[in-house]
Design goal:
6-stranded parallel β-sheet; 41% helix; flat
């Protein structure tokens, strides 16, 4: 190789570190290793997962929590097919993730091995923003530049992309006069300002509204100051969503959630949606309600019922300009509506906290699920990151736990994200408490990633709500069908034993009275696991 030449692998690594992320996630095997070496040479930090799906989940959480592009490096064949569910989840989350699939050399195409024949491009095209196999060394950097642009949303909504690169292409060297001029195309979406005419129309609608309601997506978590200023100037009520949870304290006087959210959606005469999907609440919005959207990206057709005004702009800039335009023009608010919602919300919150605080042990001494949340509520600070994963746990977490960042498995129903997401959160936000609350089924899917937590010193606390699910399923089947089924009647699995075997501090709680002290020790000795048997 000439002294001034450079391998394609090193070019990819330099671009990735400079324009995507310095932290990458992989499973260290097969064709991935040479690419990993190039990444390390160029300053990347490599996080080794136990499965490819977990690597993509960690890249997804990293992207959601840092506003960077998440990078996962996987091998072709089973490595790519293992990623399908995780990539689909990133697609639902609109997370900017680049998955690099490293394949064998081009001459080996068509060999019988699954690792050589299972191209991911066709498989993943429907759940990615862009998918392509890169066969020409001279085009790799330009394609990577384009792929990152697609991931962060310049070709529509943000989301995952997939690039497949053969090892012999990565090993090629390029002379300076043949190197592509990529890395300069990416633009800063924060420079997008709202159209003045559309901003004026949005202002008029907001000022004229008597019962304005704001729905915030993940973007508003980074725009706390601007959002609070808008709520103050407009008199609007804020709907608590999973994407925007944590933008204001749980006791914020204009925050509504839970059962009160449905009342607010039905009664509001204007909804201002900021950087969020409306798929989960769109059907609850009456046809006559005005809708304003602020987003960096044009909403997808299935995501809304048609907006009166769409401001395609950076949310921070749009919110600042909207606050200025609205200031001093508040005149038509229905104060009775806002006061009534606030009272309903306070009563719901009071009752929920009273209920979880008063939960007594079950007949066998096992804890009640609500008691876990009562204890965590006492221990978590407002800068905590909370991940909820399992049936019914997301609602409890969102209603009761303080959090500066909150993630759950609700968008795609993708159970199992708790431990990979928590690992990524601990690495992305060092020094902040990270707790993952999951049920037995969700924990079992990625229990091996506890070893990742131990190896990389991810200071997470995993709380397993161990409900002996297999016995419940068998009982339900007997009631429904009057016949035994294949579900085994087992005792409560010892998940604490799994945690200790994989290098964590782990405790099993079988008496509700022992729960608080076990959690306290877990937070002081993280990474840790608390296996709580619940009735």
């Amino acid at each position: 190789m000439p002294d001034d030449a450079c391998s394609v692998a090193d070019l990819v690594a330099r671009f990735t570190v400079a324009h995507a992320s310095k932290r990458l996630f992989r499973v260290p095997r097969g064709h991935v290793l040479p690419m990993s070496d190039a990444l390390r040479r160029n300053g990347a930090t490599i996080v080794d997962a136990r499965t490819e799906a977990a690597a993509v989940h960690m890249a997804t959480a990293h992207a959601l929590l840092t506003q960077e592009v998440g990078i996962a490096v996987v091998t072709l064949g089973p490595g790519v097919t293992n990623c399908v569910t995780a990539i689909s989840n990133a697609h639902q989350e609109r997370a900017p993730v680049v998955v690099l699939g490293i394949s064998g050399s081009i001459p080996n195409d068509g060999e019988a091995s699954l690792a050589e024949t299972a191209s991911g491009v066709t498989l993943l095209r429907r759940i990615t923003r862009y998918a392509k196999s890169l066969r020409a060394a001279e085009q790799v950097l330009d394609e990577l530049d384009h792929a990152v642009a697609c991931a962060i949303g310049f070709a529509g909504q943000p989301g995952p992309v997939y690039l497949e690169i053969p090892t012999d292409v990565l090993q090629r060297s390029l002379a300076p006069d043949t190197m592509p001029r990529a890395t300069s195309r990416l633009r800063d979406p924060s420079r997008l300002r709202p159209n003045p005419e559309l901003l004026s129309r949005a202002t008029d609608l907001l000022v004229a509204a008597r019962r304005p309601l704001v729905i915030g997506g993940r973007d508003v978590v980074e725009e706390k100051t601007e959002l609070r200023a808008l709520l103050e100037e407009s008199g609007a009520v804020l709907l608590d969503t999973r994407e925007g949870h944590g933008v204001v304290p749980p006791d914020f006087p204009k925050l509504v959630g839970g059962r009160v959210a449905g009342v607010a959606l039905l009664d509001a005469d204007l909804i201002l949606a900021i950087g969020c999907r409306l798929a989960s609440v769109g059907s609850q919005i009456p046809a006559g309600t005005s809708l304003i959207r602020i987003d960096r990206y044009r909403p997808e057709a299935f995501d809304h019922r048609g907006s009166d005004v769409e401001l395609l702009a950076d949310p921070r800039i749009a919110l600042r300009e909207l606050v200025t335009a609205v200031r001093g023009r508040r005149a038509t608010l229905d104060l009775t509506w806002a006061t009534s919602l606030a009272e309903m919300q306070r009563e719901q919150r009071r009752k929920s906290l009273e209920d979880i605080g008063a939960v007594s042990p079950s007949g066998n001494g096992f804890a009640r699920t609500e008691r876990i949340f009562a204890e965590l509520r006492q221990m978590l600070s407002s800068d905590a990151t909370v991940i909820a994963d399992g049936d019914g746990l997301a609602d409890l977490a969102q209603l009761t736990l303080p959090a500066s960042h909150y993630l759950d498995s609700e968008p795609s129903g993708c159970q199992g994200i708790a431990i990979p997401f928590a690992n990524a959160a601990a690495l992305a936000l060092p020094g902040r408490p990270v707790v993952a609350i999951c049920d037995a089924a969700a924990f079992s899917r990625f229990a091996s990633e506890l070893q990742t937590a131990a190896r990389h010193e991810c200071r997470i606390v995993v709380v397993v709500v161990n409900d002996g699910r297999s016995k419940v399923e068998r009982s339900g089947s007997l009631v429904s069908h009057s016949q035994p089924t294949q579900f085994a009647e087992t005792e409560y699995p010892n998940f604490a034993g799994v945690g200790r075997a994989l290098g964590l501090h782990a405790e099993r709680v079988v008496e509700q009275g022992d729960l608080a002290s076990a959690l306290d020790r877990a937070f002081s000795r993280a990474p840790a696991l608390v296996d709580v048997c619940v009735t």
